[in-house]
UniProtKB/TrEMBL annotation:
Residues 16-102 form the Acyl-CoA dehydrogenase/oxidase N-terminal domain. Belongs to the acyl-CoA dehydrogenase family. This is Acyl-CoA dehydrogenase. Keywords: FAD, Flavoprotein, Oxidoreductase. Its cofactor is FAD. One of its GO terms (molecular function) is acyl-CoA dehydrogenase activity. The keyword Flavoprotein applies. PANTHER family: ACYL-COA DEHYDROGENASE, ACYL-COA DEHYDROGENASE YDBM-RELATED. Residues 135-224 form the Acyl-CoA oxidase/dehydrogenase middle domain. Residues 251-367 form the Acyl-CoA dehydrogenase/oxidase C-terminal domain. Pfam families: Acyl-CoA_dh_1, Acyl-CoA_dh_M, Acyl-CoA_dh_N. It comes from Ammoniphilus oxalaticus.
Length: 396
């Protein structure tokens, strides 16, 4: 991991300095293991990383203070997740779902209070984690609105769930998770808090180009029982926070971009071929690529942190921020891909070697194109708002 240290103007106070120090210390250790997890033929899960996250108190960062957590703001969540991803993108993306969902549930207030309280106390006291499994092979991304094929059937004392979920990040380490299912009784979609039990099977399907160590295998549920008090019906308030918590995704890719940038700078500053009297950092075409990296990183990080800050400061208008939230993700992914491409061009053919981290960052960054929100959905939100504003102004 690069040791390049610069003043980060997005760290605003001593509290945030302590948070990034924590994340940086974890990232340095995770960096040393990242290649091993990524290159494993069986796509191993980074259990040691999560043991250290638990011991460091990282898993409780977004849990409410009243239950013993740190209650991080969205801005602070983005800050620590970016720093963690500089060490290992797979670990950061995986734990980001847990941290982001706790942050999300804390704000939308749709869970039965005793259930959410117990979850939070388990996070703080036991290092428990959570993820929400919605995706299915035949319905695609849940953001597209497809009806889940996972079915929830009423019993005398609760529900029986049957179906298959894809992209089940964190599943090797989870003992509980939330499942989206179609409720036959009401013909509506509901959310069920499921604990590991008989009838749950992990199908090791995850064999991907990037983010390999997230181990996002399929989960098969066969008449899995869920009690009545662990059922959360879908309601209009489910997205009342504008889904700001999803900024944990671009935060992860910001960290990968920053790591690639630092690697390229270090390489250019030290590499001197025998055809030159100086390092390649002095060459105009190398400096041009460095300048492009800096521009892309500044623009994308500024947008990301400004949107997170607006979300924190204006709780009454969070749903109105959805176009900006989506744009922050879209811009970050586009810029991350370009940053890594320029970093690889600076390093040259050596960047393709698996002995260097650039090829892993290149592969991991491609996964961002398929994380929510999708590019066309962001474009539609931006266009619809622009048209609505124009039509309103035109009618006045």
């Amino acid at each position: 991991m690069s040791t390049a240290m610069n003043i980060d103007y997005f760290v605003r106070n001593q509290t945030e300095e302590k948070l990034v120090t924590l994340a940086d210390s974890l990232a340095e250790r995770f960096y040393e293991r990242a290649a091993g997890y990524d290159l494993s033929e069986e796509t191993s899960f980074p259990f040691q990383n999560f043991k250290e996250l638990r011991e460091a108190g990282y898993l409780k960062l977004t849990t409410p203070r009243c239950y013993g957590g740190d209650e991080l703001s969205l801005y602070q969540l983005v800050l620590v997740q970016e720093r963690l991803a500089r060490g290992d993108g797979s670990t950061a993306l995986a734990v980001g779902w847990h941290l982001g969902l706790i942050h999300h549930y804390r704000h939308i207030n749709v869970w039965p209070h005793p259930l959410f309280e117990q979850l939070c106390r388990d996070v703080v006291e036991q290092g428990a984690m959570i993820n929400h499994f919605s995706s299915e092979r035949n319905t695609g991304s849940p953001t597209r609105g497809g009806r889940p094929e996972t079915i929830a059937r009423r019993t005398t004392s609760g529900w029986l769930l049957s179906g298959r979920k894809t992209y089940s990040t964190l599943i090797p380490i989870l003992d509980r998770f939330v499942v989206t299912a179609f409720v036959e009784e009401s013909e509506q979609i509901g959310h069920f808090y499921v604990k590991k039990q008989a009838g749950i099977e992990i199908d090791p399907t995850w064999n991907t180009l990037g983010m390999r160590a997230t181990a996002s295998h399929d989960v098969i549920l066969d008449n899995v029982f869920v009690p009545d008090d662990a059922y959360v019906p879908t309601s209009p308030t489910w997205s009342s926070d504008g889904n700001g918590w999803l900024l944990h995704i671009p935060a992860c890719y910001a960290g990968i971009a920053y790591a690639a940038r630092d690697f390229a700078l270090k390489y250019a500053s030290k590499y001197q071929p025998n055809s030159l009297q100086t390092t390649i950092s002095k060459l105009p075409h190398i400096q041009q690529r460095i300048a492009q990296i800096e521009q892309d990183l500044m623009i994308s990080r500024t947008l990301l942190y400004s949107v997170a800050d607006r979300w924190d400061r204006d709780p009454e208008h969070r749903t109105r921020l959805q176009p900006e939230l989506g744009l922050a993700k879209k811009v970050m992914i586009d810029h991350t891909l370009r940053i890594i491409d320029n970093a690889m061009r600076i390093v040259g053919g050596a960047s393709l070697s698996r002995d260097l981290p650039l090829e892993r960052w290149y592969r991991d960054a491609r996964a961002g194109l398929h994380n929510p929100p999708m590019e066309d959905a962001v474009d539609r939100l931006l266009a619809m708002r622009a048209l609505a504003e124009f039509e309103r102004d035109d009618n006045e």
